[in-house]
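The freezer alarm interrupted the setup, so I double-checked each line after restarting. Inputs confirmed:
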Amino acid sequence: MSRKLIIDPVTRIEGHGKVIIQLDDDNKVVDAKLLVVEFRGFEKFIQGHPYWEAPMLLQRICGICFVSHHLCGAKVLDDMIGVGYSTHNLITPTAEKMRRLGHYAQQLQSHATAYFYCIVPEMVLGMDAAPEKRNVLGLATANPELIKRVVMLRKWGQELIQAVLGKKMHGISSIPGGVNNNLTAEARDRFIKGDNSIPSIDQMLEYAMDGLELFYDFHEKNRAMVDGFGDAPALDMCLVDDNGDVDYYHGKMRIIDNDKKIVRELDYHDYLGHFSEATEEWSYMKFPFLKELGREKGSVRVGPLARVNVTKSYSTPLAQVALEKFHAYNKGKSSNKALHTNWARAIEILHSAELIKELLNDPDLQKDQLLVTATESMWTGEGVGVVEAPRGTLLHHYRANQEGNITFANLIVATTQNNQVMNRTVRSVAEEYLEGETEITEGMMNAIEVGIRAFDPCLSCATHALGEMPLEVTLLDAKGNQIDERRK
Amino acid sequence: MNAGSKLTLDYFDNEASLIYGIGNIGRQDDGLGWEFIDWLETASVCTKAERVKFYQLNLEDADLISHQQRVLFVDASKEVSDERFRFYKAEQKMDFSFTSHDMSIETIMATCWQCFAKMPEVYVLAIKGYEWELQIGLTDEAKKNLRLASSYMQRGTSVAAPTTDDRLQYVIGGA
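Predicted 3D structure, all chains:
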């Protein structure tokens, strides 16, 4: 007998996802799928628009990681006019550093949102706490001082985004060949020292350290659960610099296996030669994979866990100490543990704050060389941009005709890259929590969500779709009959 | 300000007040909150108050309102009723109807109190909208409601506290 249960509050992911779990006659899990059932089609409706509109329009895919889309698009435009990485006629140091500053500001506030809103409530209030309490508002009641700090982390990041990109949401600073503003000395001093409305950068570092300590404490008390939950092997991918260290704004795409051997390293302009995308009739989200290895062996994981697995070191001292601890704990291997993503995210909050502090003290940000002017003969009409968005590797690829109108656009967002590994995680959790069961309980539902939430998926980005955010879980018997369904 | 007393926009025309338009002009009538702010600017009304336009409320807005004495939120409403707009004094409430990028006015107020031990007077002007598709521009009926609400706020009105039964459903102005 099929039953439908509606659970409130809505789940803490961005987008509309549905999970279907198939059991055999012995109630063993034989299949588990994360379905994404929205569609928007940004790649289509951008066609015909002037090329310079693309970063402004395409960043509207998302209200959370819009800076990443904006900068990714800006890098494409640099290529198109002949001053990007594909032509080696680079934008000015001030322009690149301004873009980086905005990028790190977004990573700080986006990670803080994901970590403190979606993950910390379970760490502080308990996995078994009532759902109406197990969220950031429950935290506000239980620990108002912690939430006060979260408010300030988000506010500080948002204010810095506004100072760099001109707006708190959907910025306007990056233009083909550079940026249209630098950072004034007054603004710089405000973020370094703080004022009566925002804390100082050193206070941000302190709050970031507190966030990491929260994870250490949780891990210490729940080691078996954290280390045993949602183990999903995959290759790891991120952008790296010449030293093999993660670079959130630019670098080579490095892909490593679980022993940290380099499987591939490529210029992202050549991604089409290396990656293919599988489709499934049950999902709008594609499944990218390395062509040579095939879908099963060639699917990659991106995002905080992948980056912390891949990077050899950090240039900043506090994050480096945290990284060494992470690498030592995993004995030099890549971690496949879903909940270690939360550890990695907490490390990256700290790393972002340190990178911001470095840039705020860089005098290049007050210089006036903002733009490289391109001549008509430099026009290439095509570009590829890749950045490390908070959720992982983000790619934009556009072509335009001689009139400058977009004729082709392709976006591969981080959540799409993670599609295969998220499905593996769902299956791993389902096998652990649902095997032998004929009814979905709140605990099972939350376990599946915890596994998905570790990736901080943005399903609206991944399908480029608007939508509300329920998660549905459906349980099927061996004949495909629905025996239970729950919805959050 | 007690329920039932006369109140006009003049009440917010000072540096200790914030007028916050919630919405998205790219979603037809969801732009009502922003249009109200634009009207204040073009009509030079409430020039001393701080004015903000944003897509939706976020946690950091608890800090924003903690620095104010009076706050007026202006938002589009999907409320199914004959009313073209409603104006009322809001009360704090942790409603837990939560996502990471959309929070209710009442929850922002409750968070403000929990974290900062401060609570401004908060009023809501909810203007009825009709269409919410991806398109710029208000519908004719929404424009009419905006004119009526603006005019009403200039003349002064009786303020009633909301009851559980007549709470509004706020539009999500997602990006």
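Quick read of the result. Residues 160-175 of chain B have pLDDT under 50 and may be disordered.
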